[in-house]
Design brief:
The chain is elongated, with a radius of gyration of 23 Å. The protein has 6 helices and no strands. Helices cover 63% and strands 0% of the residues.
């Protein structure tokens, strides 16, 4: 990160640095909100959906989308709103959309090898050829 690490940088400063290409600044933003964001995603997925999605997959997709659209983030102004809370609300909205999008995707089909019993009961290649 390009800024001095002696003091904890303000969220707005991190956002500006991340917008200017400082990957470390975005990593710090993500670190600050990941715990609360993960809790929200877990709560949403349990409440409505069961265990159809991986929380880490939603979190990763959320952070990727947030990084790509950071230029569109506008902190909300207000006496009771600080930049970190504003950023958390913004990225939470992205997480909700990522969760919905991942739920719309058909489930991944895992390729499983046939069981030993299935192989044993199948006709042998020579038997198939004789038929």
């Amino acid at each position: 990160m390009q800024m001095a690490m002696a003091t904890r940088p303000a969220v707005q400063e991190l956002i500006e640095c991340a917008r200017n290409g400082d990957h470390g600044a975005f990593d710090e933003l993500a670190r600050r909100v990941t715990y609360r964001l993960r809790e929200s995603i877990e709560r949403w997925s349990r409440f409505r959906l069961g265990a159809r999605v991986e929380i880490d997959e939603v979190l990763q997709e959320t952070l990727l989308r947030a990084y790509r659209s950071l230029g569109r983030f506008e902190p909300q102004q207000g006496a009771d709103t600080n930049a970190e809370e504003s950023f958390l609300r913004w990225i939470s909205g992205i997480a909700k959309h990522a969760l919905v999008d991942l739920l719309r995707k058909p489930p991944r089909r895992e390729h499983t090898a046939p069981s030993v019993e299935a192989l044993a009961s199948a006709p042998s290649p020579s038997r198939v050829q004789r038929r």
